[in-house]
User: What shape does this take?
Amino acid sequence: MKKYILIFTLLLIPTFGLMLRSGIYTMHDFHVFRQQQFEKCLIQTQSFPCRWFPDAGLGYGEPVFNFYGQFPYWIGGIFRIMKLSVLDSVKANFILTILASSIAMYFLARKFWSNTGSLVSALFYAYAPYRAVDVWVRGALPESLAFVFFPLILLFIKEFIITNKNKYLFWLILSLASLTLTHNLSLFIFIPFGIIWGVYWWLRSTKSIHIIYDLISAGLASILLSAFYLLPVLFESSLVTLNQTTSGYYDFHIHYATLKQLFLSTFWGFGGSTWGPNDTMSFAVGQMHWILAVVLVIYVLIKKRNKEVLFFVFLGFLAIFLTHGKSDLIWNIVKPMAYIQFPWRFLTMSTLFLSLATGAITKLIPKWVWTILLVAGLLFYSGNFRPDIWRNITDTEQFGGRLWDEQRSSALSDFWPKSAKLPNSFAPNSPEVILETDSYQKIRYPTVYFPGWIARSNNQLLPVFSSGDLGLVTVRAPLKSNIKLSFEDTPVRKIGNIVSLITLLSLIIWIWKKS
Assistant: This one.
């Protein structure tokens, strides 16, 4: 096993090797900023889980982590504890997603193929064009981390159905919860494929109804374990502008991929997803991925063996279908799919299942043939794993000047409180007294109001409310009060925290007793 991990690492170096230098590359998403804000939130609020972005929203703050998955930044926090800079922590996180996802795919593929076949699946999983898009173009850290959990969840579902061992159920719960806390859209995309996967292996097993009950219980347990995140999303999303993430530019109808983009195009760009077919980024399935899949299907149909390949390829092409405009009826019927925004996100699933299928080539064709194919594939795809622009900068430069202003103004309307108008300039550095009488004063802070803001003076609660067009935090306090302002959990958040903690402790006790 150690030998294959070493081989993994060496063969995967081209996917991340260009990160191994000082600085950071340009990317679509602002995960460097989010990592820095997560750390700053922990320091300022002295609470966990953290829910507030202190410098977002042009400096007025936003409750981003109340609705956005935190798990990638927990991992980034570990790298920060190891004394890495914020920039290096984010790069290390991306590298970890590539390595860990490959190992996860290896373990899943090992249930079907030999060591070498599993290695092939793992490498195709890492080198798929969409993986390069996620890491080097979009900089989509949560989705990149989700690639680690996809094969693990499939593995634990299959192994539990076949063996009925509680350890697989335990790890399934943890993996589902981790995916939930990493990227809820990836979870939403994955769920129907995970259900189909589970039903397939259940039908091929003893078909015990208790297995179904246990798997449903595992799903419910993962929800309870994620309650500290899910309850605020469920009950407080109506307070922010999340609905704007499904209209205008984010309307899924204008982001379907074309057949040429999916199967034939070798275009590579660092732009974005635009209206119509003239996108400036790649939506390729991977020519070697889909061609090998078709060849394997033909081979299996002729030889009448390794029929699970047909199932893997079916799921892969089902995912591809959902990226194309011909699936529009499904998108319109299943209304929540609008939150996925970009149909091409289903390339996550085509990458997963087609990569798993490719491992079969070591069983079905001679070694020299698949070796040539593997080398050709690595050479063909490795050129995609590169930056557009490399910025040789430090944390100080990243979080200062023009770059700092760009980050503070990013994604302004995504999580902005509905009770406030959007600002058009940066927040002032200090609060202002908007009213003063002989006995009290009203102080307005340069922070947007959202439920959870608490003010105290001498351990006494003070009235807190919003005021002005921007809905800023305002405190009514006696003159010369020493005011302490803090962002704390609402009852819904507290209930979520308690449910998650109780569930975690219960799971530990349960698996300890069963072991």
In short: Residues 432-482 form one domain. The beta strands are 24-25, 390-391, 432-436, 440-448, 453-457, 460-462, 464-467, 472-478, 484-487.
